[in-house]
Amino acid sequence: MTATCELLTGESVARIWSAALGREVAYGGDDVAAFEAQMATSGPSWLAYDMRLMMAGIRKFGMHGADGAADRLQAMLGRPLRKYADFVNETMAAS
Known about the structure:
By secondary structure, the chain is mainly alpha-helical. Helices cover 61% and strands 0% of the residues. It has five helices and no strands. It has helices at residues 10-21, 32-40, 45-61, 69-77, 84-94. The chain is globular.
C-alpha cells in the first residue's frame, strides 16, 4: 500500500479551486509579513509572529513528511489517500 504524494503550490491550489468554482481564484502571494499583519487582527500578536516564522520556513524548505509517513497515514485512515482536487470536488458536491 505505497502512497503517492502530490506537490501542491499556492498557484496550483488556486487553479484547482478556480476550476471547481467556475471563477478565478487568485493566489494571495508569499508576503509573510502581510500574512502576520492580517493574522494579528484576529489573534494574539505572538501567535501571528510564530505563524509568520513557520510559514517562512515552509516557504523556504518545503513541507516534507518522513519516509513512510503517507503509508502510515493510509493505514490509520483505513483508505487510500486522495488527490487534493478530488477533495475539493467532493467538498463542492457536499455543499
